Amino acid sequence: MVEDLPQKQDILDGLRRGVISGDEEVVKLATQEGIDSGIDPIEIVERGLIPGITEVGANFERMEAYLTDMMMSADAMKAGMSIVLTKIPREKIRRQGTVVLGTVKGDIHEIGKNILGALLTAAGFDVIDLGCDVPASVFAEKAEEAGAIIIGASALMTTTLPGQKDIVDYLNSTGRRGKYSLLVGGGPTNAQWAKEIGADAYAETATEGVKLALREFEKRRKQTA
Amino acid sequence: MITYLDVIKRIHTGRICSERDFDLRVFAPKLKEVLKAHDIRYDPVNPVPDDDGLADDVWSAAMDFYCDVGTYCLDTERIVQFDENEIAQTLKTAPREFTFGDGKQRKALTQRRPEDGTPPWCFLGAGGAAVSSEENLLRLVQGYASIPVINSLTSPALTTVEGMRIVAGSPLEIYGAIRAIGLARQALTRAGKPGLPIMNCISTASSAIATIAASQPQFGLRPSDGWLCGTLAEMKVDYGVLSKGAYLLSWGANVCSETAPVLGGYAGGPEGTALVNAAYNILGTVIQKASYQLSFPIHFNFQSNTARSTLWAISLSGQGIARNASLPVFMLGYTASGPMTEMVLYETAAWVIAAVASGTHIEAEGVCKATHVDHFTPMEPGFAAEVAYAATGIKRSCANELVKTLLSKYEDKIKDAPIGKRFGECYDMTTGKPSEDYLRLYSKIKKELEDLGLEFKY
Hints:
The complex is a heterodimer. Chain A is an alpha/beta fold.
């Protein structure tokens, strides 16, 4: 166990900085060093990795960091997590839940969805990114498979908006609508459309998307408590 | 010179790499490196920069960047690259003049220069925003065609056919695309401008199959119109866009390289967005063999481009392209606010002044982010055209002061901009005339601009 506080703090600071700079190798080495030095793995996550990704998220909100910074930091954090998770029971890690994310069938625009994915990771969600041109059934089946609580569906064209309604229809037809919160977003989407198709929420921006995901998560947590 | 078939060959033989690696290991580090090497820095104090050296630096940085990064093909997962000499030769020998339209509306398009005394090409209409009905599409296009200085139309997109919602890639997309073209041509004829080119063919179609199907001449399109062939953010193409190109170039039709770098996305901040926008112009000539670049750098958080940072990126990249490239560039404005608000006219004036003084042509415009059905009218592009003519020939320093004043009137409201009113609430749908209230508002803001020193020509 590390008793020497300055050394412990150095390792945790190094982890935080490694995540901020999006350097996977630095984060892997620092995580291993932390474990080898006897730092509690939960502390590695909560005082090293999470503060790093949280800072990147805040920088993104202030437009001081951009999408590639977010994605690289998210990758670096995942690299650290993959090491640390082998050392502690998963339920001891404070996570928000799983989100299945994608761009609907017929639509190949990804950038907004990618930004939301990176921000959700920063906020503590496990994100399963299905990519673009995703059929309604795939959103639903992957959510089922991963035990997700939230489905996020993006559409960037007026002609692909029906793909969001298809998800609602598919979930209804399989009797699973109540299991998930459906968040919709993308250029031509708006609150009226979300209401019309029976989605749970509409996010105009990725930052709003994270707030809504947290709200939906909290709502569901209370329901199951 | 690089031919279209050379491009097609390289999308199947170029270096293979995953999309994520292209984004994070090729595109992002090179962008940072080039921005640093050329010392390109955002200046929020001056949204319209007045520095030819900086404009040329952006162009030269875009060349360095593009030669190294190339274009990523999503379908083959390969990077299309050409060496610097091949690219330079292709740019040098590329056409510099492109002709659009028929009859009295036929006109040649060439590149402008910063502070140019020649008015910009006014490509006016809805910016592809969606209308709820065929009747609205007809009435809107007639209104657009009646704007005195219009050079080409950007038609709205239909959302339904016979009450059925149009779905991308479905047969309804083909029906919708054919119908939208027929209606737009009919409305242009009613307005007495049958030869006016439609330069956003085909707004209702997104897939290659619908575009090609609806482009058959019997439905009303001509090679002298212009087709949007959209690149994907950032520096990416796919089979769909290249297939459209294969068809259109074989027909001798005008290809539009549609580009929309996202500020806050892969392109990063204002500096990166300006650089990537300039690099897209090179892609348009080298890869797409385009007749024009239609660009709308867009702010990720606002989904519009009238914020200070996006105006700077529009202005600087516009100057870099106008001073160095052969492929004419149009800037397309997206306002945050909607019709019949003071803000929409302030936003319109700001982006138009920035673009025109920087040497670009204009497409006006996507009103209310082009996300609200029927939330646009012919008044906003009409206003944009009046401002564009008034801003023709003004110095960038003068444009900078005007834009700063305009920004002070709306900058803090962008996030929660008013959506304004629907077309039917702003216009008399029987006579096709704007309401008295909107005319009064229009005159009020025009007078404010005159008081700021802008001299309207009509």
